[in-house]
Write a structure and sequence with these properties.
The chain is an alpha/beta fold. 35% of the residues lie in helices and 20% in strands. Among the domains are: 77 residues, no CATH class; 90 residues, 2-Layer Sandwich (Alpha-Beta Plaits), CATH 3.30.70. It is elongated and about 70 Å long.
Amino acid sequence: MEEEDKKTSKFGLKIIAPIVAVILILAGIGGTYYFYIQNKKSQALLKDPTAVQQAETKEILKKLAEFMILPTDEEPSVATVLDAGQLKSQPFFAQAENGDKVIVYTKADKAILYRPGTNKIVNVSSVNLEQPATVKAAVYNGTKTSGLTTRFAVDIADSISSITVVSKANAKRSDYQKSIVIDLTGQNTELAQQIADLIEGELGSLPEGEVKPSDPNTGLLIILGADYVSSAAPSPTPTASPTPTP
């Protein structure tokens, strides 16, 4: 009897061993197949930057949905904060760090600052879709070089979008050596300094004998001197005309 039991056990082991082997093989194949599929998906994403971005956005929105109710009738735009230092002056970005995500829902008028590293919402605000108001500027040619104000208008449009040149004229004098930027209202000091730095001029007050622009809403007056060198064209040469065009 005991011998028969031993035979049965051996027979059972002979049957079970191949079954276990098959299960292990199938498990190995299944694991290999899983990682193969995941690798294929990763390769596909790498070949399609749009798909990568969509996948990242989907993951971000999934995490945000755990904290707040998100709009469902529009797809948000998502951007990454690359230089938080330059944004610190804006209240919304006061606590921003590089790598933070900005999620904007235009229709819902909602902007969200999210930090993936800590999975935290840093700030939420409404979206201001209005274009920032531009400051009106007048430009006077304080030299004998014709066309200087036109060249300046081209230069400034390429460099500073927050001002609009609304008038150009000749200054009362044509012997200005240094360009002057004048804040006519006292409300645009920072912008005036930015322009002065750009053209290597100086901040100043309205010179004696000069007249303010006729438009009372003009915030800045730039008087171009002989030191102004335009990037819109080669260095200008003085004209023989006693009354150059602005």
